[in-house]
Fold:
Amino acid sequence: MKTLLHGGTVVSGKSARRADVLLDGEKIAAVGRLGAAETRGAETVDVSGCLLFPGFIDAHTHFDLDVANTTTADDFDSGTRAAVRGGTTTVIDFACPEKGETLAHGLRLWHEKADGRCWCDYGFHMTIDDWNAGIERELDDMFAAGITSFKMYLTDPAMLLPDRALYEALSALRARGGVCGFHCENAGVIDAKIAELKAAGMADKVFAHPLARPDYLEAEAVARILRIAQAADAPVILVHTTNRESLAEIEAARRRGQTVYVETCPQYLLLDDSAYYAPDWAEAAKYVCAPPLRKKADADALWRALRRGDVQTVSTDHCAFTPEQKAMGRGDFTKIPGGLPGVETRGELVYTGGVARRMSLSLLCRALSENPAKLYGLYPRKGALAAGSDADIVVYDPEADRVLHGAELASRAGYTPFEGFETSGSIRSVYLRGALAVDRGAVVGGRNGQYLARERCAL
Ligand code: MN
Structure:
C-alpha cells in the first residue's frame, strides 16, 4: 500500500524543505516533488503546515529493570507505547546480565522482556559490569547479534570495574569497532558523602541527594574515563551529561584529539536542582535521578554545547517509578528509586526549548534522530527521510501547542517532571515502518515493534 504525505516540510540534518514523501509498504519510496505517475494509487494525506521528521530515536531507556528492590513502572509494553506516542519509533534499552552471568544471559533476558511487546522498534546496548576472558570472547557474539554499543558504570561500587579492566574492555571494544557509554560519577566519594549527610541527620531530606552527588564528582569520573580512553585510543560516549565542569573535561579531551560523543537529557536542559527543595517530600522525590539535576547555568551551558554540536544527542534515561515507589525512600534518601519518566515527552520538549533558543530544525533533527542513528549503527535505515529508509515519520504540527499533564501520558509513572509545561506545537501523527502508529495524538498502532540488529558506529 502506498501513502503520500503531501504539503509538509521535510526536515533532515542538513535542511528543511517543502517536499512530498511517498511511503510504499514499510519503506520510503521517494521524497521531493513527485509526479502523478509516481504517486498513482497512493492514498494522499494532507500534512500542510506540518514538519516531517525522521522517527525519533531514544537511545537511553530502562524498561522492566529490577533496581533498588523494585521494578521500573514501565515495561517494554507501556514504555514503548509511551515512546511512540511521543514520536520515538526506535528505543535502545540497556540489557543487563545478572551479576556473575554471561552477556549471552543478559541478551536472552532482554529478548524475553521485549520480544512481542513493543509498540516501536528496539535494540539493546549491553552492560558490562564484570571483565574476564570469557566476557571478552563473548563480545564477538554480541556484535553478531547486532549489539555494537556497551555501557559501563563508574558510579555504583557494585558495578565499578578496576582501571585495568576499564582499559582492557575499551581496548577490546575498539579493536572490534564498538563504542561504550559511561555513567560518570565518582563511586567512593559519593558513598562517603552519603554517610556524612546521614550522620548529620539529613537522611529524610531529598536535597541530601544532590548534595551527595555534586557536579565535580561527575566531572572527576568524566576526566578519569577520558584519560583511560586516551590510553586505549578508544572513543567513548558520555551518557546523561549534566554540567559545565564535565563539559570542560570533554573539551580538554577533544583538544587532545580524542573522540568523545556526548548525550544529555531533557531534564538536564530544562529543570534544575531547586526541585529537590520543594517543601513537600513526595513532590521533591519525583525528581530524584542520578546524576541529579544541576543549576540553571549548567542547563544553559548544555544548550550552548548542543548548538555548537559539542553535545550530539538528547536521550531520556527513561527510568520510571510511581510516587508510591518513590515513597520507599521516606526516611532514607538513598532508598528513593532513582530515575525519571521521559520517553514520551522528549521530542516536544527539545523542540520547544530549541525553537525558543532559535535553533535550526536541522540541529533538532540531528539531536533527536540522525545522530543517534549514526552513533548506534542504524543509519540510514533509521534517522533519515530518504528513499530506501524505513518509513518512520513524525508529523509535527508547530501550531498545535499543548500543556503536558502526567495523568494524560501513557507512562505508568502517573506523573511527569514537566507537569504544566507549555509546548510549542505537538506531535500530530507518527508512522512506524509505513503503518500509522499515532493519529491525532492517539496511539492506534499495535505491538509491531521489531528487534534491530545494529551496525557499527558511523558518527
Ligand atoms: Mn541510565
Notes: Residues 54 and 384 are 5 Å apart (CA to CA). The pocket of manganese (II) ion is lined by residues 60, 62, 317 (CB under 6 Å). The domain at 56-375 is CATH 3.20.20.140 (TIM Barrel).
